Amino acid sequence: MDSSSTKPEVARELPFLRIFKDGSVERILGTEIFPAGTDPKTGVSSKDLTIIPEIDLSARLFLPKLTNTPNNHQKLPLLVSSAFDPTYHNFLNSLVSEANVVAVSVNYKKAPEHPIPAAYEDGWAALQWVASHCNGNGQEAWLNDHADFGRIFLSGESAGANIVHNLALAAGGGGGGEEVGVRLLGVALVHPYFWGSTPIGSEAVDQEKKGSSLAVDSVEWPEWLWPFVCPSMPDNDDPRVNPVAEGAPSLAGLGCGRALVCVAEKDVLRDRGLLYYQALAGSGWMGVAELFETEGEDHAFHLLDLGSEKSRYLIQRLAAFFNRDMPPSLDF
Predict the structure, then answer these.
(1) Alpha carbon distance 297, 291 (integer Å)
(2) Radius of gyration of the chain (CA)
């Protein structure tokens, strides 16, 4: 047999990524690009834009069916999120329809081809692009005409939720960067990817799952994921992946007024999300923190079965969050 035709040996495997010993990578999920257009089920329209050509950054915009609004000129909450694959496209169609929001889904660069901090830099650049529309004279008419820049939310699942946290912290001045130019009303972190070098909660109990690196509930993949995507700073107590680590920036500096942390009972990352919520609520942050847990479900369950009762309820919970303003006594 010709050795050149032999497939390289697998070194690591995630539910969405396969890494070979020769350093090559095969993406199992998230490689397809679902075409933009009008969704026949929800009436949500979408289109793709290259928002910052200089860094090859693109985004997909979502606009709800405008007959859903009492007045077609009504400004709608603006949601900034991430991912381009078909599963997430369908999820955003459902969420945009339910919540009646305008959404910008950022196609941020992914590791290992683009190691951290590339994803954070793309997220920050996208947020600045969004902010450039706040006076009604930006590049994109959908944002100029329909987005309420007093109600901007960031939202993400898993690694996307990690990006959301780090962007919100930077927006509050904890990132040491330039100002973004708009205020964030809230953030939604769905099954956030956080980790740490010391096991907490069920992580210590579930060490026997380490041999099952293919399983989404394995404690092995979160341990090596951060060193893999951030080889320049591979410590699992890097504050970007462990926001409660010693020396991490105070969560009191989170640059928004509301936060919703969603966890799933069977998710290996559940205890990290719970710890984040507890740390945020106890940090002195002058916002409103909420926790929502889905019982009996695993990591990102809603993306795999949008039609289930629990998925629909999570979408409704997120939609309600995106349509609430700050209480007047806590206006920031």
Answers:
(1) 16
(2) 20
Over residues 151-168, the mean pLDDT reads 97
Structure confidence by residue, pLDDT tens digits, 114-133: 999 999 999 999 999 999 99
Respond yes or no: is residue 158 known to be catalytic: yes
CB 65 within 8 A of CB 97: yes
Q: Which of 122, 267, 271, 298 is catalytic?
A: 267
What gap in Å lies between CA 192 and CA 181, rounded to an integer?
26
- Concerning whether 299 is annotated as a catalytic residue, the answer is yes
DSSP 40-89: TTT--EEEEEEEEGGGTEEEEEEE--GGGSSSTT--EEEEEEE--SHHHH
List, in order, residues 6 or more apart from 309 with CB less than 8 Å away.
none
* Measured distance CA(223)–CA(231) in Å, rounded: 13
Q: Which of 97, 158, 218, 311 is catalytic?
A: 158
Q: Give the H or E element holding residue 168.
A: helix 159-171
| Dihedral of alpha carbons 55, 56, 57, 61, sign | positive
pTM of the model as a whole: 0.90
pLDDT for 129 equals 97
Q: Is 82 a catalytic residue?
A: no
Please state the rounded mean pLDDT for residues 270-283. 98
